[in-house]
């Protein structure tokens, strides 16, 4: 995924499904470097721990 797509997802009112290494996640924010984002695991409608990941490793599904 690229920074423009992350920005689109963050500004969208639709629920867009995203995975990080086959794990469903919620994108909290795009970092200033625009190569990483803060995400949370998203399982059974519950948000998990926040972590920083490379956005190139995010996938829509």
Q: What would your notes on this structure say?
A:
By secondary structure, the protein is mainly beta. The chain has one domain (3-60): SH3 type barrels, CATH 2.30.30. The chain has 1 helix and 5 strands, in the order αβββββ. The protein has one helix at 3-11, and strands spanning 18-20, 23-30, 36-43, 46-54, 58-60. It has a 5-stranded antiparallel β-sheet with strand order 4-3-2-1-5. Strand 3 (36-43) and strand 4 form a beta hairpin. The longest helix is centred in the N-terminal third of the chain and has 9 residues, at 3-11. The protein is globular.
Please sum up the structure shown.
Pfam families: SspH. The chain is mostly beta strands. It has one helix spanning 3-11; strands at 18-20, 23-30, 36-43, 46-54, 58-60.
Q: Termini separation (Å)?
A: 12 Å
Structural class: mainly beta
- Helices and strands, in order, run as HEEEEE
Largest sheet: 5 strands, antiparallel
The poorly predicted ranges are none
Q: Mean pLDDT, as a whole number? A: 93
Extended strand count:
5
Q: What is the name of the CATH class?
A: Mainly Beta
Shape: globular
**Count of helical regions:** 1
Radius of gyration: 10 Å
CATH topology: SH3 type barrels
Strand content: over 45%
Strand order of the largest sheet: 4-3-2-1-5
CATH architecture: Roll
Number of domain units: 1
Helix content: 10-25%
């Amino acid at each position: 995924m690229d920074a423009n797509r992350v920005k689109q997802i963050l500004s969208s009112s639709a629920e867009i499904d995203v995975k990080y290494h086959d794990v469903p996640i919620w994108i909290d924010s795009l970092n200033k470097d625009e190569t990483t984002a803060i995400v949370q695991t998203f399982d059974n409608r519950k948000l998990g721990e926040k972590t920083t990941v490379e956005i190139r490793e995010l996938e829509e599904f």
